[in-house]
């Protein structure tokens, strides 16, 4: 593991960070959700590895569970919510310019901007 960060909603762990792509494991605690956000410089592929939840992309909300995969294009407004009682684990592959500060939060339960 290269890097990690504990967040109010759970934790992310970085496993690969190469020019043009980055791979993380995202763990969302039960009852928590990520901010509603978008990225200018990267797209993302999310594979649901454990648990279930509700995924939102550009206003469309769908149920996701183990084995599901979603694609988030550059500029796509997205969030995921763990409405279950176990951890929601996502394997995230970022493509493009993969800098941690390439995040624009549109709504956030924890008061972050």
Describe this structure as you would to a colleague.
The chain is built from no helices and 11 strands. By secondary structure, the protein is mainly beta. Strands 1-2-3-10-5-8 form a 6-stranded antiparallel beta sheet, with no helix packed on it. It has a 3-stranded antiparallel beta sheet with strand order 7-6-9, with no helix packed on it.
Q: What's the helix count?
A: 0
CATH architecture title: Sandwich
Instruction: Tell me the span between the first and last alpha carbons.
Output: 27 Å
The SSE order reads: EEEEEEEEEEE
Question: Shape, please?
Answer: globular
Based on CA atoms alone, the radius of gyration comes out at 13 Å
- Count of distinct strands: 11
Describe the protein's topology.
Blueprint: E1 3-7, E2 10-18, E3 21-28, E4 36-38, E5 42-50, E6 52-57, E7 60-65, E8 69-72, E9 78-81, E10 88-96, E11 104-107
Antiparallel strand pairs: 1-2, 2-3, 3-10, 4-11, 5-8, 5-10, 6-7, 6-9
Labels describing this entry:
single chain; 113 residues; mainly beta; Jelly Rolls; six-stranded antiparallel sheet; three-stranded antiparallel sheet; 0% helix; globular
């Amino acid at each position: 593991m290269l890097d990690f960060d504990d967040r109010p909603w759970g934790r992310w762990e970085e496993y690969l960070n190469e020019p043009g792509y980055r791979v993380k494991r995202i763990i969302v605690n039960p009852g928590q959700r990520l901010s509603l956000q978008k990225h200018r410089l990267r797209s993302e592929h999310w594979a649901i590895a454990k648990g279930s939840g509700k995924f939102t992309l550009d206003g469309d909300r769908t149920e996701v569970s183990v084995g599901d995969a979603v694609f988030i294009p550059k500029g796509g407004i997205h969030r995921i919510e763990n409405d279950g009682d176990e951890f929601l684990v996502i394997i995230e592959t970022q493509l493009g310019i993969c800098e941690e500060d390439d995040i624009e939060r549109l709504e956030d339960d924890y008061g972050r901007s």
